[in-house]
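User: Some background: our group keeps a shared notebook of sequences we're curious about, and every so often someone picks one and asks for a predicted structure to add to the entry. Today it's my turn. The entry only has the sequence so far, pasted here. Could you supply the structure so I can complete it?
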Amino acid sequence: MPSPSSRTPQTSQSPRWVRGIDALCLALVVLSVLVAISGGFRVRIGPLRVAVTSPYSTLLWALALAIVRHVLAPGAPVYRELPARLAAGWRQPAVHTAALALVGTRPAMLFVGYMAVLVIGYPPGPAPPMQVNNELVNLQARWDANWYLGIVTEGYHFVPNQPGLQQSIAFFPAYPMLVRGVGRILGGRLTSYIGAGMIVSFAAFFGALAYLYALARDTLDADEARFALWALATYPFALFFGAIYVEPLMLLGMTATFYHFTHARFGRAALWGLLVGLTKTNGFLLSIPLAMLAISDQVMRLRAAAQSDREGWAADDGARWKILKAMSAAAMPGVGMLLYSAYVWQVAGDPFGWLKAHGAWGREYQGLLTLVGDRVNIIASAGVEGYVASLPLDVINALGVCFVLAAVWPVGRKLGAAYAVLILVFILPPLAAGGLVSAGRFSSVLFPAFIWLAGAVPPKHRPAWLASFAAFQALNAAMFYTWRQLY
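Assistant: Of course. Here's the predicted structure to add to the notebook entry:
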C-alpha cells in the first residue's frame, strides 16, 4: 500500500531480523487466538502434513522466540509501538477514507440482499442451491461464488471430452487459494470458508480503495480523491466487492500495480502484476497498458535528452536498466496467465483449456457488430420501451458499459492513453465474446473512469451522483441475492 507518512513511528534502530522475530511472535499470538476460536486446522503441503489444533503450542513457540530474541537483542519489541503505528496509519487520508467507504456501503448492501431474500423471495421454479441451511450464512453462496467455494474445498476437477460441460478450470486460482488459506486457519469447515471469502473480499476492497486514493491524488485534490472512492463504492455494480467474487482482488491488483509502476517501484509492481495475471481470465491484458506506460516514459526521456543536446539513449546511464525493469514488470500479468496455463496443460492436456471452458457459459466470439446489430434490430421492431421490457438485465448491464466507454476519451486526455487503453482492453473483448452478460460487473474494476468522474463532477452535484449510484446498487443487490440473473 502507499507508504506511510513521516509521522509513523520508525523502528530502524532495530535490526531487520529482530523486527521480523517480533512480527512472527505477534502473528503466532494471533494464530493462537484463531485456533482457540475455530478449533485449528490440518493441511498437507506436498509430502508434509501440518496440523495446528491447540493454541498452547503456538503460544509456547511465541514465548520461546520472544525469550531468544530478548537474550540476543534486548530492547522494546516492535509491537509495543503497534497502537501508535495504527493511530498514525488511521490519520492517513487514504486509510480512513477507504475504511469509511467500506463500512458505509458493504454492510448496507448485504442487509439489502438479506431483506430482499425475506421480502421478495426467489424466482418461481426449483429452489436454488443451498450451501448451508441458513439464509443469512448462505447469503454469499450466489452464482460464481459457488464455483469458487467448490475450488476452495475440493480443488480443480476436469472432465475430458465434454466441451459443453461447465468446468472449474475456467476460474483462475489466486482468489480461491487465498480463501482456502484463510478458511483453513478459521477451522476448515464450509462456514469457515464462506467467512474467509468475505474477509478476503472486504480486505482486498479496502486495499483497492486505499490505492485508488493514492492514484487519484496524483491528478486530483483531496476532496476529489475522496469522491472517487465513494463513487466507486456506491457504483451500481460495486455490490460484487462485498461478495465471494474475484472483483475485489482484481481491483486491488490493478490499482496497486499501476500505483507502484507509475512511481517507478517496478519490483512491487511486478509482484502485484503477477497476482493480476493469476486472478482472472483477462488479467494478462494489463500488460498492454503497462507496456505503453514504460514506452511513453522512455520516449519522454529521449525527447528531453535531445532538447538538452545530449545523445538520447546513451546520455542516461540508467535508462537501459530502467526500461528493462519497467518492461519486465509490465510482462508479469502475462507471466501469471502462463503459469496457470501450464497447470491447466497438466490437468486438461490443453494449456488454454481455461479459455475454451468459457464456451460452456455461452462465451463464444460473435463480434461487436453482431452485439450492436441485434440490439438495434430489437429497438427498431419493438421500440426502446419494448427493448427495456423484454431484456431489463441487458439494459442494466449496458448502462455500466456505456459509462466506462463514455469515459474513454476524457480519461485519455486527463490521465494518458495507457489508462484509456486499459478500459478498452478490459471491456471490449468480453463484449465481443459473450455480449452484455456480466458486462456491468466487468466495468466495476475499471478505476480510471472513476478518477476522471471525480474530477469532472462539480462539488454541488456529487451527493446526487452518490445517491443515484447507491439506489441503483441496492436494486442490483436485491436481484443478485434473490438469484435473478445478474451475475
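Suggested note for the entry: The two ends are 29 Å apart (CA to CA). The mean pLDDT is 89.
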